[in-house]
Amino acid sequence: xxxxxxxxxxxxxxxxxxxxxxxxxxxxxxxxxxxxxxxxxxxxxxxxxxxxxxxxxxxxxxxxxxxxxxxxxxxxxxxxxxxxxxxxxxxxxxxxxxxxxxxxxxxxxxxxxxxxxxxxxxxxxxxxxxxxxxxxxxxxxxxxxxxxxxxxxxxxxxxxxxxxxxxxxxxxxxxxxxxxxxxxxxxxxxxxxxxxxxxx
Length: 200
Description:
- By secondary structure, the protein is mainly α.
- It contains 7 helices and 3 strands.
- The chain starts with a helix and ends in a 14-residue tail after the last helix.
């Protein structure tokens, strides 16, 4: 089944060679990832090249499982948000680059949506508020300490949706003005220290 999905083919024989069916190293990596997820085991990619059939890989999977070498993942436990948290490597890169160029918008991820029909602005605002409440990353800021930069997660609070009413706007026209406002919003930098790092 995994091979059928990755190779996008309806039939795969247990002795068919993966590479003869159109597979390549990138697809092999996908297969390995799915095997790891399905069986909670891992083995080197070279094993795939040595055993490029379902039958061959099945034998490797059985060998590993019989040896009791399944992956034992540590349990996920919540971390206290009282004390500041160290930055991940990705966050460190972002923070460092922002120190070099505070006005940079290189990491802005703008998204414009057109909603048709009557929009309940208060319901939209409450929905966004719930999203911010659920996702700490939308309430996280990055500040420097004497030792290293840290992330701080702000408590969930009320969220205010910025609304501009263009119903009576005539110059040049509402559509053009809406696009101008959206473009202006997209190029506005974020302050990683003060936040928020999400705006609508």
